[in-house]
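#random but structural
TW: two for the price of one
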Amino acid sequence: MRLNYNGILRQIRYLNYDKVVDSHCHIDTDIYTDTERNDAITTALDYKIVMITSPLTRNERIRALHMQRKYINWIYITIGSHPMLDEPYEHVIDFIYKHEKEIVGIGEVGLDFAPPMSLETKKKQIQKFKHFIDLSKTLKKPLIVHSRGASRYVLEILMKEDAEKVLLHGFSGNKDIAKIGIEAGYFFSILPTAIISPKKKRLIEHIPIENLLLESDSPAISPFPNLLSKPWFIFLSAASIAQIKEINIEEVIKETNKNAVKLFGIKL
């Protein structure tokens, strides 16, 4: 059964919850205009959403720091270097060390083998990924991992490098690959596209609630054509989990919040 977006949003006002965590978004993004960003933050706060934002560029990192200082305990930051960005990641690592006390995680980092690319490019991605795994272990901060078209490779590297606290964001692998992460105690964040994706629904079915978080990945990965994703789309993720696990949305929010606190050490 396909879930109704407007119907779910109407129900939010009647839900009993204190806060809800969007474990991965890009509220700092340059894709939003200043007006769109401010509106998105205002609405997210109205829905009592705690946002963990992952800036992708230096400009966005600086903006995210300002936002985190303005919205204390409502906006948190993770910083890494996206696998598809060709940037001097040593500079990013320096930035992370400089602002170590202001960030709650390392990411997003990982692998993206979806577009055609050379073996050399893949090797560079793997090398960069390993550097950030080491950094997360050194700083004792969780990793937020991107794994498009490379789920099995990502899990193999994480296991080989003894990565400990891991969030596999927007995971697109199958249930057998996910099982490796589940057994390692990793977390998986569920996108709003779960309302329309049979593959995402199968993953939710096989991943225990103890390993699940909510994420919007806003402004990307919207389930609706020509509509940018927003943080409050996590209620679609929550509704999908509730439907498949046969529990109510409030229970999903409670459990995923608990998982977010355990992973990131944030205050709710």
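TW: number two ↓
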Amino acid sequence: MRDEYEPLDRWLDDPPEVRLRRLPSPGIAAVLSVFWPGVGHVYAGRLTAGAAWFVGVAVAYWLFFFPGLLPHMICVWAAYRAAEEADR
């Protein structure tokens, strides 16, 4: 009878390691992108998208300041969505 409980005893004595992954917060991703375009994407785990947004928004600001605000706001929205989709 004792043999059938042996695997349970081993598991209780040495439980398997469980790692929890903290999911990115959409709000934090958006705020990061407000201050530095592309950083919200990096926070959400999308490094290439973050670099592309940084370069794209920087070029838009360099060309024209006011039209640069539109890509910046789109970047903030996209970072928010990227963080939302990270948990799926």
